[in-house]
């Protein structure tokens, strides 16, 4: 479904890899040893022994998979455990994606109202109900939904089937053909913006947008060394307005509602250790999967409680994002893994100690306030955790069932892309919203009285 991103990668000659190859390159290939990659990869215990993926519910792994793509044995296991539910969910996902793709094409594109466009393509039937009610309605509610689909909505959106709308839950299953740009997806957007303009202003914040009687907008901005006010015909706000710090003064504009967003804690850390089997109730001879997704236990029901968080599992996912050698270790070059944790709370040292199977630091050495350096950890030994970085994101809206979506046009020549994040929150859909608005703006310029006069 990543049509715009796929085209951008091609257009800007960015080298891409399938999601599977990307994982191989980042996780299993040793960067410093190109001659010997395959040999090392094959002897790497993560490749040969650990399952690739496991779904943990806080007590046990309810599902494991040997490799990134579904091999014949994994596929057979999936069908054995879940019956035909995976196949039916796959069919439903394809049907929904086909409807979604109509938003890119004539006669719908460009759409003036996302609400209307969603209705025309028939996706309102899935945005207006929770995933749980859709799966129940289609007779697909059961372990497949609760374990596999829910693990997927948790890792992608930190949300549960009881509250997330069913379209977003199906988007989580649409992983076919997933790809990544080598070196980072950011390069696509960097190339797009540099192609569009030479006037890229980093570290500059827009602080106010004001509609003037001459029909232009004054846009106030500030950067570390200056403040500015400039005038524009059209203004496109391409970030969730509620977090932007932009003050909008346009009497006729209808501003988007403030909506609840997920606060996602992302923690990256480097360690020479593997995850401890005992922290995951495995025997000492078993290895923890490279990707640990999580789900709820059968007796957990978050309902529509947006504060429920990760529940008994304690986090949404832990994955190895890279392996390499630490140039700062003693002696230099110690093999280490960089892990990424998605959680609803700050990952503290006690949690890290538990999953790494090392001694918990004493609580006195770990007192801290919320504004502390995100790179700091206190009681853990540098031989257990050599580096850490924490960041809290307003990552996505809570994707609650909706009948209507924010208007693209907030007022005369004032546009807003981020309403689409309540429909489907992805890089692709936000790019689609941007492309759609760009086309609407151009269409208006082309048919404006001034242009008509010039043309005459
Ligand atoms: C941890 C995490 C993981 C994710 N994983 C995925 C994924 O795997 N796949 C996927 O498709 N999507 C993923 N997403 C969602 C994806 O990042 C968003 O859907 C996408 O970034 C939205 O794009 P955008 O351009 O609308 O907004 P953003 O990417 O948020 O860009 C908005 C920009 O506006 C800037 N800005 C804000 N206020 C101002 C101001 N006042 N003045 C000037 N600039 C301002 C911000 O600094 C930011 O650079 C993830 C999000 C998070 C947080």
Any overview of this molecule?
The chain is an alpha+beta fold and 456 residues long. Among the domains are: 3-50 and 66-181, no CATH class; 261-397, no CATH class. Helices cover 32% and strands 21% of the residues. The chain contains 16 helices and 16 strands. Strands 3-2-11-12-13-10-14 form a 7-stranded mixed beta sheet. A hairpin with a 2-residue loop joins strand 6 and strand 7 (226-232). The chain is globular. The two termini are 42 Å apart. The relative contact order is 0.15. It binds flavin-adenine dinucleotide. Flavin-adenine dinucleotide is lined by residues 205-206, 238-239, 244-246, 264, 266, 393, 395-396, 417-418, 421, 425-428, 430.
Key features?
456 residues, alpha+beta, 7-stranded mixed sheet, globular
Topology readout:
Layout: H1 3-11, E1 16-18, H2 19-28, H3 37-43, H4 45-48, E2 53-56, E3 61-65, H5 72-82, H6 85-101, H7 114-120, H8 124-127, H9 131-137, H10 143-157, H11 166-171, E4 179-181, H12 186-196, E5 205-211, E6 217-223, E7 226-232, E8 235-237, H13 241-244, E9 247-249, E10 261-271, E11 291-294, E12 317-326, E13 334-343, H14 349-356, E14 387-397, E15 409-411, E16 414-416, H15 427-447, H16 449-455
Parallel strand pairs: 2-11, 5-9, 8-16
Antiparallel strand pairs: 1-4, 2-3, 5-6, 6-7, 10-13, 10-14, 11-12, 12-13, 15-16
Bound molecules: flavin-adenine dinucleotide (FAD).
Flavin-adenine dinucleotide binds at residues 205-206, 238-239, 244-246, 264, 266, 393, 395-396, 417-418, 421, 425-428, 430.
């Amino acid at each position: 479904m990543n049509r715009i991103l796929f085209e951008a990668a091609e257009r800007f000659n960015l080298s891409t890899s399938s999601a599977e190859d990307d994982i191989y390159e980042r996780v299993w290939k040793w960067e410093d040893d190109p001659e010997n990659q395959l040999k090392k990869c094959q002897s790497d215990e993560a490749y040969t022994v650990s399952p690739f993926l496991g779904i943990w519910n806080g007590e046990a792994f309810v599902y494991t998979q040997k490799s990134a793509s579904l091999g014949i044995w994994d596929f057979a296991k999936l069908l054995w455990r879940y019956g035909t539910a995976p196949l039916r969910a796959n069919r439903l996902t394809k049907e929904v994606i086909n409807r979604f793709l109509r938003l890119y094409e004539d006669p719908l594109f460009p759409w003036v109202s996302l609400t209307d466009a969603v209705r025309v393509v028939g996706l309102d039937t899935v945005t207006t109900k929770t995933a749980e009610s859709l799966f129940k309605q289609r007779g697909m509610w059961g372990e497949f939904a609760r374990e596999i689909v829910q693990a997927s909505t948790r890792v992608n959106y930190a949300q549960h089937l009881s509250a997330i709308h069913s379209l977003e839950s199906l988007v989580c299953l649409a992983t076919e053909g997933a790809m990544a740009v080598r070196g980072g997806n950011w390069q696509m957007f960097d190339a797009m913006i540099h192609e569009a303009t030479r006037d890229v202003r980093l570290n500059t914040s827009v602080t106010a947008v004001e509609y003037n009687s001459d029909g232009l907008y004054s846009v106030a901005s500030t950067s570390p060394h200056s403040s500015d006010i400039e005038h524009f015909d059209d203004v496109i706000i391409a970030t969730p307005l509620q977090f932007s710090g932009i003050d909008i003064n346009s009497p006729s504009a209808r501003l988007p509602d403030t909506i609840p967003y997920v606060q996602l804690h992302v923690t990256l850390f480097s360690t020479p250790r593997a995850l401890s089997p005992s922290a995951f109730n495995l025997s000492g001879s078993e290895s923890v999967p490279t990707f640990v997704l999580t789900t709820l236990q059968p007796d957990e029901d978050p309902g529509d409680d947006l504060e429920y968080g990760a529940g008994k599992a304690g986090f949404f996912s832990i994955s190895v994002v890279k392996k390499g050698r630490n140039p700062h270790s003693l002696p230099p070059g110690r093999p280490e893994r960089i892990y990424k944790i998605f959680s609803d709370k700050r990952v503290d040292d006690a949690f890290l100690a538990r999953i790494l199977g090392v001694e918990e630091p004493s609580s006195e050495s770990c007192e801290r306030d919320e504004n502390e350096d995100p790179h700091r950890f206190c009681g853990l030994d540098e031989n257990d955790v050599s580096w850490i970085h924490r960041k809290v994101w307003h990552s996505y809206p809570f994707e609650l069932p909706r009948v209507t979506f924010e208007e693209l046009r907030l007022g005369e020549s004032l546009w807003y892309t981020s309403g689409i994040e309540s429909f489907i929150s992805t890089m692709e859909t936000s790019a689609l919203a941007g492309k759609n608005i760009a086309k609407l703006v151009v269409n208006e310029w082309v048919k404006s009285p001034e242009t008509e006069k010039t043309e005459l």
